[in-house]
Amino acid sequence: QVQLVESGGGWVQPGGSLRLSCVASTSMFSIYHMGWYRQAPGRQRELVAGITSGGITNYADNVKGRFTISRDNAKNTVYLRMNSLKPEDTAVYFCNAEKVVVAARYDYWGQGTQVTVSS
Predict the structure, then answer these.
(1) Exposure string (b/e) for 32-56, b if CB count within 10 Å is 16 or more?
(2) Rounded distance, CA 57 to CA 44, Å?
(3) CA dist., res. 93 & res. 60, Å (int)
(4) Which 8-state DSSP code applies to residue 74?
(5) 40, 49 contact by CB (below 8 A)
(6) CA geometry: angle at 90 spanning 79 and 86, to 5°?
(7) pLDDT tens digits for 27-83?
């Protein structure tokens, strides 16, 4: 099992910034695709940003230009820098680690960290 622990959430005013961190327990961190998802009350969980084991990134359209995902394999950590935060960014943010092989899919989730954007 891969353990994922998120941190860095909190409350900020609109226009503010936060950096989320996710530390993974696995010694094979570098082979996992990593992602950040979020879920607001009454809404489905959605992908915010992803980064492959090779460093290729992708973002949801509504966060492009504001959020940046990165990873530091030496620290077993993936980050999400969030700038220009909006109230609609309020959600619990979850870290995800994924490994896909021919016969199986391995998918792990952290417990989440709350991000609240309000005045």
Answers:
(1) bbbbbbbeeeeeeeeebbbbebeee
(2) 22
(3) 14
(4) G
(5) no
(6) 90
(7) 899 999 999 999 999 999 999 999 999 999 999 999 999 999 999 999 999 999 999
